[in-house]
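User: For documentation purposes, I need each entry recorded in a consistent format: the amino acid sequence on its own, followed directly by the corresponding structure tokens. There are two entries in this batch. Please keep commentary to a minimum and don't merge the entries.

Assistant: Recorded as requested. Entry 1:
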Amino acid sequence: MTTDLSAARTAAYEEFDLLGPLPTGTTVLEASAGTGKTHTIAALVTRYVAEGIATIDEMLVVTFGRMATQELRDRVRGRLVSARDALADPSQAAKAEDPLIRHLAAEDAPARWQRLAHALGSFDTATVATTHEFCRRVLSGLGTAADIDTNITFVDNVDDLTVEVVQDLYLRMWSRPNADAPPMDVKSAIELAKAVVSDHHAQLRPDDGAPNSAADLRFRFARAVREEVERRKRERYLLTFDDLLTRLQKTLDADGSGAIAAARLRQRYKVVLVDEFQDTDPVQWDILRFAFHGHTTLVLIGDPKQAIYAFRGADVHTYLAADEVAEHRRTLGTNWRSDPDLLAGLEALFRGAALGDDRIVVRPVAAGHSGRSLSLPGAPIEIRAVRSRHRRRPSPRRRRGRRRTDRRRASGHWH
């Protein structure tokens, strides 16, 4: 049953019109699977540039992962090329099948063509990057406003350094005569250390264990590992890509210098588009919030139903926190990938369903094409788009019997 809250959240999301007024302020744009997220981003960049809102070097497009970044960069450039080529002949562009081309040709087509041509001529200045790459560029450009040394060496991880620290601390803490017995072996200590170093913004708990209890000793060891790894990184001028995030977060949040750094970013970027925003972690959102929220056009594009990277620090609650402060909420309402029957069946099953949180709901989408993408001529029965099956959980006795049967089959003793 749909709760009052989830119904209200569904109603709060208006369908986004790609040819309507361009987003301003902070906008959360929910894009379910198959609704043309990348197509929308490329079209928005084209519109912002062609309509004179921002030049290509005044736009920031951030996405998740290097491969996704290259694909998005290619898609954006391809959209700019197609729009420029079409507007070379405004009379033909006004009759084009592509609605975006018709929209651009409807007003001041020569000036829009000129802006698109200039954008393509200077496309190398476009910032289409991962969050880490963006942070690296920003910290390098801020100079003395950022706490970063020019002689720094970037590394993917500090696993070797972490093992080195564990070995030193383990011997120091538990190899002395009359020392307490260690609460874990060296292998377990290395696993613990790698976990606390890789997820450096996670809080260590419990921090109030009984003195010298196993929990207290593990906590103190984990804290010591973090501190010593950071000290040796500074000593050796090492920086991981995750460190870039925390450095920029601290720079933007600092008294005095934070306001200066944020002002430089706002002066540089007039429009910011963030792809795959559901995979953003709290530190990344802090950077975007400190720098752009309330000052710059900030479009956050993602789908909380696809938030699957918690193991990398991503937090769907970060998406929900941004949703709470956004001035505008929109959703892409057409699915261009799936058949109408499939969408209708899934809507019947999941309409209004809240997935783990009343603010994460399944919203209705229309089909972008009719008919079926897969047909089987001469099929004796109709193939239904969605079928549900209910299976009862077998009793413990039946489960044990199945496991014995599986073991006999695997060992070859099956007759």
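Entry 2:
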Amino acid sequence: MPADTAKKPSRIQLKNRGIILDAALDVFSTHGFRGATLDQIAEAAGLSKPNILYYFGGKDDIHRTLLNALLDVWLAPLVEMTDTDDPLDAIMDYVHRKLEMSWEMPRESRLFAGEVIRGAPRMATDLETGLKPLFDEKCALIQRWVDDGRIAQVSPAHLIMSIWAVTQHYADFEAQVGVLVGSGSQDDARAHVDAMFRSLLTP
């Protein structure tokens, strides 16, 4: 029986990778990919630059690792939207979860938005092979609900993109939201977004 030559990372190595990725998420979400440097990541992580390069091949490697880990998390609420006796509740559950993710994961939202704004140079394949089939599947599901008269007449594709635009605004423009309405306005935001989409979708 051949020996297992793949050496598993130690607890310390796993911990350091996590520290580096968390620090890099801060740096990338603040400065963008082009503005971020390994020196900034090392400083935020409290590790030396050679130590960073022991675990990752460079800035691009760290960025790709973060994006790959993020995509599955980002798509999970859409995956969970399935056929149901109450399509309106299913869509509103998705809206609420996306809103919560914007409040809980603003750094991740800005990382993803920054990548897409730059033309998705590191995620184009993932968007094509991962997001597009899922998006088409959920559009078809929503269209069946529309055709059956279970929700109002809407464009499924533009409905989903509108949900993204509205909910992710609270993360991507967090600083502006804080200036305009303050940081304690989540209940008001939730009520407004809920009323807006329920009004749009109710037959």
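Summary note for entry 2:
The chain has ten helices and no strands.
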